[in-house]
């Protein structure tokens, strides 16, 4: 009987250890679900209604920072004004998108520009997301005066006649990716990205008066045609690398003599002379007194 209990205990312990190891493997490989969504519904309502977004007509205003939510826009003709507040994710290594212009394949025609229309996103800071804004198939939208700190700033796939201007982009991947036509990218600032603007397909896109720093290439063209970069028409396969910055020379410090240094040297010399006199005179006086001399 005791042997049976012993065998059962051993088998149970081994099974428990194997189960624990299996659980640890699953947890280690588990990335986690997408973040919960905030919806601006087709009727203009906000879902859930408790989030810090206020609606006045077709204007939507953030009233506080929003953390660990994605925003899904399901309607047209609205303005989302961040008013300087931040939309913060859980880290750019997760596959989250801060704002998505929803495209319903069962309702819209699958052709460029057939998605959301006349949406304005402005005055918002987007950080700790993999992608800032996915404006898939949208048209006549504006993304302006925002600050993006993401791997990918704005995706304009299948987009027509959109404007992206006066934004600040910093991250690791591509600031703006374009697969569409007649989009206008002006007055933006790009830093710490691999590619500033990637134009894959489409035609007649305009890229003007943007600034780039710490970017491998300011613009990269794949098969898009008639892309205007400043005053130049770019051809498929072209890119514009950023020249390396010249390091600022290091200036050696210049030392200027002053009266203070002169006084300091004088006092140091007097101190040394006083020490020498003490070392010489004190033994001399001592020995003279030992011999009875005054």
Describe the structure.
The protein is of the alpha/beta class and 294 residues long. The chain folds into three domains: 1-30; 37-241, Pectate Lyase C-like (3 Solenoid), CATH 2.160.20; 258-294. The chain is 20% helix and 39% strand. The chain has two helices and 23 strands. The chain has helices spanning 2-29, 259-290, and strands at residues 37-40, 46-47, 53-56, 59-62, 66-67, 70-73, 78-81, 86-88, 97-101, 119-122, 125-134, 142-144, 147-160, 163-165, 168-170, 174-181, 184-186, 189-201, 206-208, 211-221, 227-229, 232-234, 239-241. Strands 1, 2, 5, 6, 8, 9, 11, 13, 15, 16, 18, 20 and 23 form a 13-stranded mixed β-sheet that branches. Strands 3-4-7-10-12-14-17-19-21-22 form a ten-stranded mixed β-sheet, with no helix packed on it. A hairpin with a 2-residue loop joins strand 21 and strand 22. The chain starts with a helix and ends with a helix.
Name the descriptors.
single chain; 294 residues; alpha/beta; Pectate Lyase C-like; 3 domains; 13-stranded mixed β-sheet; 20% helix; 39% strand; disordered N terminus
| Number of self-contained structural domains | 3
Strand content bin:
35-45%
Secondary structure category: alpha/beta
Give average pLDDT, whole number: 79
Q: Helicity, in percent?
A: 10-25%
Round the Cα radius of gyration to an integer and report it.
Answer: 35 Å
Q: What is the β-strand count?
A: 23
Question: What's the CATH topology label of the largest domain?
Answer: Pectate Lyase C-like
Uncertain parts? 1-31, 244-263
The span between the termini is 112 Å
Number of helices: 2
What is the name of the CATH class of the largest domain?
A: Mainly Beta
Q: From the coordinates shown, what is the CATH architecture of the largest domain?
A: 3 Solenoid
Assembly state here? single chain
Overall spatial form: elongated
For the biggest sheet, the summary is: 13 strands, mixed
Helix and strand string, N-terminal first?
HEEEEEEEEEEEEEEEEEEEEEEEH
């Amino acid at each position: 009987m005791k042997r049976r209990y012993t065998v059962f205990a051993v088998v149970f312990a081994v099974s428990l250890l194997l189960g624990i190891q299996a659980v640890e493997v699953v947890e280690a490989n588990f990335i986690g679900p997408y973040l919960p969504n905030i919806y601006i519904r087709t009727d203009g309502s906000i879902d859930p209604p408790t989030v810090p977004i206020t609606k006045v007509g077709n204007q939507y205003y953030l009233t506080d920072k929003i953390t660990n939510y994605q925003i899904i826009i399901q309607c047209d003709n609205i303005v989302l004004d961040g008013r300087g507040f931040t939309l913060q994710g859980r880290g750019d290594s997760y596959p989250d998108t801060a704002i998505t212009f929803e495209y319903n394949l069962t309702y819209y025609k699958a052709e460029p520009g057939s998605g959301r229309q006349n949406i304005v996103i402005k005055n918002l800071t987007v950080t700790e997301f993999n992608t800032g804004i996915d404006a898939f198939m949208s048209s006549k939208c504006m993304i302006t005066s925002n600050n993006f700190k993401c791997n990918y700033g704005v995706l304009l796939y299948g987009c027509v006649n959109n404007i992206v201007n006066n934004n600040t982009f910093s991250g690791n991947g591509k600031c703006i990716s374009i697969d569409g036509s007649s989009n206008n990218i002006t007055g933006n600032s790009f830093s710490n990205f691999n590619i500033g603007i990637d134009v894959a397909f489409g035609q007649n896109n305009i890229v003007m008066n943007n600034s780039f720093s710490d970017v491998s290439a300011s613009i990269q063209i794949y098969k898009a045609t008639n892309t205007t970069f400043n005053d130049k028409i770019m051809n498929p396969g072209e890119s514009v690398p950023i020249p390396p910055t010249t390091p600022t020379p290091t200036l050696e410090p210049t030392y200027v003599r002053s009266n203070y240094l002169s006084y300091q040297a004088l006092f140091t010399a007097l101190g040394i002379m006083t020490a020498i006199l003490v070392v010489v005179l004190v033994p001399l006086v001592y020995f003279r007194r030992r011999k009875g001399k005054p």
